[in-house]
Structures are given as structure tokens and as C-alpha cells.
Amino acid sequence: MSQYCFGIDVGGTTVKIGLFSSEGTVLEKWEIPTRKENDGSNIIPDVANAVLKKMEEKKIEKDAVIGVGIGVPGAVDDAGVVHRAVNLGWDVIDIHHELGNLLQMPVKAANDANVAALGEMWRGGGEGCLNMVLATIGTGVGGGIIVDGKMITGATGAGGEIGHIHLVDDEPDTCGCGNHGCLEQYASATGIVRIAKRKLAATQSDSSLRKDLENGTLSAKAVFDAVKAGDTVACEIAEEFGSYLGKGLAAIAGVVNPEVFVLGGGVSKAGEILCTYVSKYYQKYVFHASKEAQFKLAKLGNDAGIYGAAKLILD
Amino acid sequence: MSQYCFGIDVGGTTVKIGLFSSEGTVLEKWEIPTRKENDGSNIIPDVANAVLKKMEEKKIEKDAVIGVGIGVPGAVDDAGVVHRAVNLGWDVIDIHHELGNLLQMPVKAANDANVAALGEMWRGGGEGCLNMVLATIGTGVGGGIIVDGKMITGATGAGGEIGHIHLVDDEPDTCGCGNHGCLEQYASATGIVRIAKRKLAATQSDSSLRKDLENGTLSAKAVFDAVKAGDTVACEIAEEFGSYLGKGLAAIAGVVNPEVFVLGGGVSKAGEILCTYVSKYYQKYVFHASKEAQFKLAKLGNDAGIYGAAKLILD
Q1: A139 near A188, Cβ under 8 Å?
Q2: ipTM > 0.90?
């Protein structure tokens, strides 16, 4: 008899769902809206209905389903209890119990960033590695740490919250977390724009980015496009970004000594050039025993969460 | 029938050995010299003889011994192969095979710093916690990371090498590792003396440490003794030390989010005051989700290694 599982990634706007074979092939994937009204009380029933409907449609019996893995944007403890998922309106929700009751199947829940890291280890940029760090470089900097093939959750679910590692003592701007000088203030899409604005104000050099600044189109993408076109100021901005992220990832290597760093998030669309800038400074700052770590781009994009959630239940 | 195990800690001068009950009580502990001549080729046979002799003396049958755990000062992979233990004269040695052959018992080997962390988690400062970071503050800064009750070894055995996390960009002095600005350059016994010398040269203030500097007795212990006596300059030195170590441990929390930091090594003999200085700056730099982490002193001293080695084989 064929065996199946579901991998589910609950986001602030949509819930992504994947039906997987027990070998880990995605057979079908789709989305449903995330209904956040009434403290998000519809989300779990909506997920259960979506799963049950698909099973009916595909004529999949309950005993052919190994279980349901689910990633949510909040701290999740090992018992599957979410402690405040503000983007969903949730306070404290016992997912294993609530979703398990509705489905009468095994459920395994975890934090979405950690689940995405598990997905990238399994079928993405870290495939073949059991010790991996995913750095997600988007509006902010997130992360997920995989050691011996398992996610690091941490004591309060904050394992892999690498964006708030302190890097700079005299940063005047305040980070979203309230501190000053966090990695995220330099190594995110927002951080790159901040570095670019400072650099453009401090130099007289010509740069295509001045037009972007005037037009309000200055972005991380614009910076890396200009880097590829050979713009000198843009290259200096990329060097500075690389030095911060390289330094942050070198500190992480001093803790978990991974085989591979996988770079994901919107900024990773810049391509291999991102790895070049980051690994250059990583090599400068890292302890020699961790110099061999590789830098790779994430491969699964928005599907990392459903893959990781499936892996969570298959493990 | 009673069950036993051995916990062994191979150091550069002596090998510490503990005979444990299967419940984890140390029944007897003793030391043998570490014979480093001939590329350390006697060390493994000496260890085997010591174990067999003790079994004979105590009339312990082979099938009453669960196994032998052993910590060594070098990178050890999961198969028990040591890759260069320079302090022992070893190049590549398969401990599981060599010691296992001599004893005809299960053997489990790991890096000594990681094993010490396991010991402190099991019976020391981290007792009752499964997520712990041991920071060993001696001549250098070492460490061991425990996640869900297991050591983090890392891809090349450099998990927990926290002493070489980069902290300062413009440090002129070179660290033992060849880099500049490593945590160890500020947060070790040697680092405290370095900070003290700089501080004494930069200020005119009176301090009992000036006499120590003249007499060649300036040490981390002298600094913390002066702190306890209310010496203002010594307090400034301790603040600076605390800021570096607090910042380094906050970065580590951004990766593994531990329940507790255990401070060990020679400098930890300063007592609770050490935790006070370090946690003050940890709180300043750490991401809010990790603010609850506790700071405790190591309890097992030089016995951490034999306890951790016993736990290694009991797990």
C-alpha cells in the first residue's frame, strides 16, 4: 500500500500545503488563505479540512497517511505548543492536540524558520549534509540550525534567531528588536539599503544607484544589479554587506561548525555573487577548523517550509 | 548483578580515570601519567591496562562493564577517530578500534572539552538542563555546547570552539590561532591580564594592581581579588572583561538559545562575582527571547571530564 504524508507551512497570508509520498516526492501542492480574524481560530480547522478534502479527492485512506508536519511563525516547544504567533493572532495553542484531534493522525509542529532549514537540508541547498546553517536574508535575517540532521529549537524556541547577534557597538539606529548593532541591521535587504544610503552620502563617486535613490527605487536588488554591471560604489556596498554577514556566520561556525551555509530569502536571488562576497569575509574571520564550510544558495524558495514539514513527520 | 562503566579523561600530563556505577556514582578515581614519548603510542595500552587491573582488583567481570567513555584533547569524529591530538603526539588514531580491541568492550570517544560540558550538564553546574553552554575560562577560552542532552561535535570536530569567535576589528595583537580580535584575547586569564596592563597604562588612578604589575604577579586572580577589595581600576577591568564575554555568549545564544551558561576553568574560581559581571553585559546584548538564560559556576572542576566520559557510554 502506498504511504503518504502532508507538509504544511502556515504563513501570515496563505497556508501552503503539500501532499508527499513516503519517499519524499511532492505529489501535489496548493494554498489556502490564512484566516486571521477571531484570533486566528479558523486556521487549524481550515488546515484540517484541506487535508481531509484532499484525502477524499485522492481516495487516500487514513491508515495510509503517516502524519502531518506543520511549520508555524512562532516559538513551538517539543510538545507542539505554540507560544504566541503574533502574525496569526495566536496566543498559546496546542497544535499537536488541536490538529491531531480534528485529523486523528500524528501531528508534528515546529517553528517555520527551523522547518525551512530542515527542508533545505533534505531536498535543497544543503542536500547530503547533516550539519547545516540556513541564513534567510529577506526584509530581516532569520535562520535555522541543523545539527546531525535535527533542528535546534532551543530552550525557549529561539534557536537559530541569528538576525539579532550583536555586531556593532556604536550603531545609532535601533533594530526592530530594540537593540543596536544587530546582524539584521546590515545583512538584510533593509540593511543593504541602509548601507547604500550611508555610502552614497559619504562619497562623491558616480554611481547608477544615485538615480535609484532619487526615484525611490533603491533596493538590495538594485545594489546587486549594479554590482553585476561593474558599479564601483555598489561593489563597496556589497563588500560591507559581505563583511557583516561573513563575520556573523563565522561566529555561528564557532558554535556549531557546520558543513554548509545555505543562503536563502529574497536577497539570495542575486545569485552566486552573494556567496562570493560572504565567503570572502567568512574566511577572514572564522577559526581555521571551520574554513572548509561551503556556501550554497537555497533551492526550494517558498517550498522549503512544506518540504521541511514533511521531513519533520517522516523522521 | 551490579553494572559498571569507566570514564576516562586523557590530558597532556595525566590520564584521569573514574570507575562508575551504572547509576552514575563515582566509586573510585585515580590518575596515571600520560606517556607522550614515541608519538604517544603507549597511552592507549596504558589506559587499557589501568582499566583491566582495576577490574581484577575489584573482581569485576567483563560482562558487568557497560563500556568505557574517553575524552581526548583533539577533534574526534563520530566513529571515534582522533584527527591530530598534538598535545599527545597523536596523528590519526582510531580509538574505538584500538582501545576496543585491547579491552574487548564498547568504547566511546569524544573531544575533551565537549565531554567536560556533558559532565557539567549531568552532574555539575548544568544539572537538570538539557540545553547548556559550558565556557571554560582558563589560559584560553574553550567551550562545549549541549543541545537536547547531546554534545555538538560539528562537521570537523570544532563544535564549541567558542574562544575564536571574532569580536574586535582593530585588535593589533595576534591571537594564538593567527587571527585578530578573538574572544579568547579578552575573556581568558591571559586576556584579563592584557586588559589590566592596558588599563593601568592608560590611567593615573591608584590601584593595588600596580604593585602586582611591578612584582610580576599580575594575574586574573589578582584582578578579581582586587575587585572584591573594592579597587576601582580592577572593577573597570572586570567590566571590560564582562562586556567581551557577555557579548560572545549573547552571540552563542542567538544560535542555540540555551537554558544555562556554565562558567568553568581557572578564572571561575573567582566565584559568583564572575557571573554578575558577565550576565550584566549578556543582558545588554542578547536577543530578548534568550534573556532568561541562567549563569552558573561549574561544579566538577577537574572531574568534569571523567563524569562526561562516563555519561558518554551510559547514553
Answers
A1: yes
A2: yes
